[in-house]
């Protein structure tokens, strides 16, 4: 492994979306992440099985957590780990015998990271949900989409931004505290809390009277004609983000429009006409023509690329924004470090493929490993 987290050991109990994303981020940065997969190798729902990129760089041991011996394996692993992360519903880890109280008794310096949608407590904590539900409750979804209805921004806001990334930050903060002489603790990350946190600046705008709670009527929600997308001649799109006056001037100059035609940038009464004017101009040329036209300017115009197109764009190629590992093109680790560069050292493992190595490193004898396998506790 390489990266700034080299030497950090994390046990991840296999789950969905945000917790595996947290584990991927930590593995990308050099942590040894040991994923505890299902003993029977049963595939989890889409986006979470052994071929998922969220499992890249990890090791896998397949354990039957419903058996006492299987829970014992996890407890042995946490004895030498810096952190454990899990994404079960509240109470599940406790029923399996691997809850925070039990794990912290084995390792008082352990950071126990928990990822849920609604939280460990509260009237909705036991309910099922997904990203779209969590951002609905946090107030984020209401602000996203056209005026007619909210539109889910994939599952980026709650699952990965407000969920997995916030959990990674919390786990690392707690590890720093332990290494400074503190004790282990539970990190309770929830997607409702995290997605609400991502809206902090917008709550500030609302408090200051700068934000209306109707969609497509604000500066950053598509209401401003200089911060939105436009269709181009062949059906593609360009993104425009010319917020500052000097960037707005570069935009209008590039569109061959004068101030008399466009009017004052922040005159909201002129916005509908300004948007129609911009739309008509952008419809006269293709997306790639406009990208070339505005290249090298400060007009803040960019082509809207598909995932496949993004991998081939010259800027992303020059920076190595995407890498190929195991024959699969994927986003490279981020951020970048000058002294301890991060890299993906291996593709996602198949469930249980590192079992013997992981258990041996944790202090299990060959005889114990054979006994665990014969009992069905591991595969």
Explain what you see.
By secondary structure, the chain is of the alpha/beta class. The chain folds into 2 domains: 9-198 and 323-375, 3-Layer(aba) Sandwich (Rossmann fold); 227-304, formyl-coa transferase, domain 3 (2-Layer Sandwich), CATH 3.30.1540.10. It is built from 16 helices and 11 strands. The chain has helices spanning 18-28, 68-79, 92-95, 100-106, 131-138, 156-179, 191-197, 200-207, 245-254, 259-262, 271-282, 287-294, 307-312, 314-319, 355-361, 366-375; strands at residues 9-13, 32-38, 59-63, 83-86, 111-116, 185-190, 227-231, 237-241, 301-303, 322-325, 328-331. A 6-stranded parallel β-sheet has the order 3-2-1-4-5-6, sandwiched between helices. A 3-stranded antiparallel β-sheet has the order 7-8-9, with helices on one face. Strands 10-11 form a two-stranded antiparallel sheet. α1 (18-28) links the parallel β1 (9-13) and β2. α1 (18-28) crosses α6 (156-179), α5 (131-138) packs across α7 and α6 packs across α7. The longest helix is centred in the middle third of the chain and has 24 residues, at 156-179. It is elongated, with a radius of gyration of 25 Å. The protein starts with 8 loop residues before the first strand and ends with a helix. Mean pLDDT is 94; it is low at 43-50.
